[in-house]
Write a structure and sequence with these properties.
The chain is an alpha+beta fold. It is built from 20 helices and 22 strands. The chain is about 40% helix and about 25% strand.
Length: about 650
């Protein structure tokens, strides 16, 4: 390993000069190294001493005897071989120890697996085993000038010294640990060891720990670790969920969870497999809620036994709230679209409101939805049920709450018996035109904020629908009524007459059609002007309404011509009604154009008898002909057409 390191140092592009040196006097490590080295020596190894080249007096066993003559030339050759690294095991066994002046057996050093060197006082190698040859060559080449100072310090320090030398190499840095132990006669036992890997691993571990610590400190997530029991044994120093770290340590995670019975959430802190991004809701220290995305991995000890879990938890509360808001908005749009589409698919405004009530009940899963509409004819501002779902009890509950709603209050949420009720007034251009009530059974989940917002949106849409219905009714009224009198016009009258006449064919009953025409009306306009003529028309319209039943039809056909349809009226009843009208027409006389041409009415009556199959056009023609017959024969009276098939003269009075 040392040889490979030396090769890397030689190939380094930086002139093989050390770039960093670390020095340390580690007495404890030296003592331990010396102890191990001493234990590794053979029992027959003993100190060798030589003075002035003489053979040492002590033998390997420590005895005194005469020293044999020494082959000085052989010693020199072997010394050079040791220095050059060409010393073999066989050669080492014959090394003259007195010449090398060792305290250790050269054979043992030569066979040692670790690099071993003996240095002179001037810092040059005297001996190197096979694993230290490369290092010795590097010293000779001047790669390690620090060795001279190291040897000097080793000689001066009884316990020796240990120094770390760091060098740049092709793939980074390399570090040598050099142990210099003093020997007799100014020699140094040098034990080089490549600690590059150990040092790099240690530095990598330190960097990794620091990196983890920095990430934990700056991360918005908090790190945690639990033991076998599932309790927190480590939490990021900053704590979590507004709790200090010490408030979490030693406690179970479930203590902070909202759902105490959520076993899946609790199990993640005791997981035996890797889990990623599991959302769990917790209580913060201030009582508010927080959603954490928890990732965990099991902890396995050196024996392969599970002993806890560790992981990270990210606060995703805002993200979840944002996702919930988006989901609620989408659901809100979907329901509103469904309700609005149900309303727009219907043309009839009355059916639009019914569809709105039905769609709202389905979309919101409420027990009932009742839509109220302002009554334009009611000065008290009371509202009428325009469309609804549910039962009569629901309508009564909604009507009672709406009636009690203060005039300056637009909406109210109230518990009423078994129901949770939301009542909201409907507006159009800031004008109240109706109201809507939503009823939910209390035994079911009550509406959340998103659903209540939907109710407000529905109420706004219903306000628009009510206005459209009001406009439609006004248009229908204008298209079916006479602009001056408010009576049915010609078109509306005959549309309704056909419907009622067809009903008589399936439900036989008598009825009468009465044509009314004013006498001498033109003279009123000529003498007094059209204003007096309009007054006369209005007087006659009121007279006809006052002398008919609510279910009868009264219409102005145009000019001074009117028509009346009397349901369930036989010949006798029709004649009685005609007499009443003739008597009441006296109120028209003050409006006459001339006294000798009094303003009055002429009546022509056609009676539909039970089981008669006369066509409606024939009935109308009979009534019209009879009215003109009366005007031709004196005016101011009435006549009743004879039954169908009878050609007798028309009866007059």
């Amino acid at each position: 390993m040392i040889s490979r390191l030396i090769d890397r140092i030689k190939k380094s592009p930086n002139d093989k000069v050390p770039v960093a040196r670390e020095k340390a006097n580690i007495d404890a490590e030296l003592a331990e190294a010396a102890r191990k080295l001493e234990q590794s020596l053979p029992d027959d190894m003993a100190p060798m001493q030589a003075v002035d080249g003489a053979v040492p007096a002590a033998t390997a066993t420590g005895g005194n005897s005469a020293a044999p003559e020494i082959d000085q030339e052989g010693i020199i050759q072997r010394r050079e071989a040791a220095i050059s690294g060409t010393l073999t095991h066989d050669d080492a066994s014959d090394v003259d120890q007195s010449a090398l002046r060792f305290e250790l057996n050269p054979t043992t050093m030569a066979q040692a697996e670790a690099p071993v060197m003996v240095m002179r006082a001037d810092g040059t190698p005297l001996f190197a085993n096979k694993n230290a040859m490369g290092f010795a060559d590097g010293i000779r080449e001047g790669l390690f000038p620090e060795i001279v100072a190291l040897v000097a310090r080793g000689l001066e320090t009884p316990g020796g010294v240990v120094e770390l030398l760091t060098f740049e190499v092709q793939r980074g840095t390399a570090t040598l640990e050099l142990t210099a132990l003093p020997m007799h006669d100014e020699f140094i036992l040098l034990l080089p060891r490549d600690v590059s890997m150990d040092r790099n691993l240690r530095e990598a571990l330190i960097d990794s720990r620091q990196r983890y610590r920095d990430i934990v400190e700056v991360s918005s997530a908090f790190a945690w670790e639990t033991d076998e029991s599932g309790k927190f044994v480590f939490v990021s120093p900053r704590g979590a969920m507004d709790y200090q770290a010490k408030a979490l340590l030693g406690r179970y995670p479930v203590e902070f969870m909202i759902e105490k019975t959520d076993q899946d959430a609790e199990q993640i802190f005791r997981t035996t497999r890797a889990v990623r991004d599991m959302p769990i809701w917790f209580y913060r220290a201030n009582g508010s809620t927080a959603c954490l995305s928890v990732s965990a991995t099991p902890i396995i000890n050196r024996d392969g036994k599970w002993c806890g879990a560790r992981g990270l938890a990210h606060d995703i509360t805002e993200q979840r709230q944002h996702e919930t808001e988006i989901a609620n908005a989408r659901n809100r749009d979907r329901l509103i679209t469904y309700i609005v589409r149900a309303m727009r698919d219907e043309i009839d405004p009355t059916e639009v409101l019914r569809n709105a009530a039905t769609a709202s009940s389905r979309a919101l899963a409420c027990a009932a939805c009742i839509i109220f509409r302002s009554d334009a004819d009611n000065e008290d501002g009371d509202m009428q049920d325009a469309a609804s779902t549910g039962e009569d009890i629901h309508k009564k509950v909604a009507a009672d709450i709406l009636k009690a709603l203060p005039a300056d209050t637009d909406h109210q949420e109230i518990i009423h018996g078994n129901y949770w009720v939301k009542v909201r007034r409907c507006h159009y251009h800031h004008r109240v035109n109706g109201a809507v009530a939503f009823l939910f059974e209390r035994e079911n989940p009550l509406p959340n904020e998103a659903e209540r917002a939907i109710m407000d949106d529905v109420a706004d849409q219903i306000g628009i629908a009510i206005e459209q219905a009001d406009n439609h009714d006004r248009i229908v009224t204008l298209s079916r009524t006479d602009g001056m009198t408010g009576l049915l016009n010609r078109r509306a009258f005959f549309d309704e007459l056909k419907r009622r006449y067809n009903r008589l064919l399936h439900q036989p009953a008598p009825a009468a059609l009465m044509y009314v025409d004013m006498d001498n009306f033109k003279l009123v306009n000529d003498v007094h002007g059209h204003q007096r003529g309009d007054e006369a028309i209005l007087t006659l319209s009121r007279m006809l309404q006052d002398n008919t039943r609510p279910g009868d039809l009264v219409a102005r056909l145009g000019g001074d011509e009117f028509v009346v349809w009397l349901d369930r009226t036989d010949r006798v009843a029709a004649e009685s009604r005609a007499k009443d009208l003739i008597a009441a027409s006296a109120t028209l006389r003050p409006l006459s154009g001339r006294e000798d041409k009094p303003l009055g009415i002429s009546l022509g009556i056609a009676v539909h008898e039970v089981n008669e199959t006369e066509d409606i056009d024939d009935l109308v023609q009979r009534a019209d002909d009879t009215m003109y017959y009366v005007k031709k024969h004196g005016k101011g009276s009435y006549a009743i057409a004879e039954p169908v098939g009878v050609h007798a003269p028309t009866r007059t009075d």
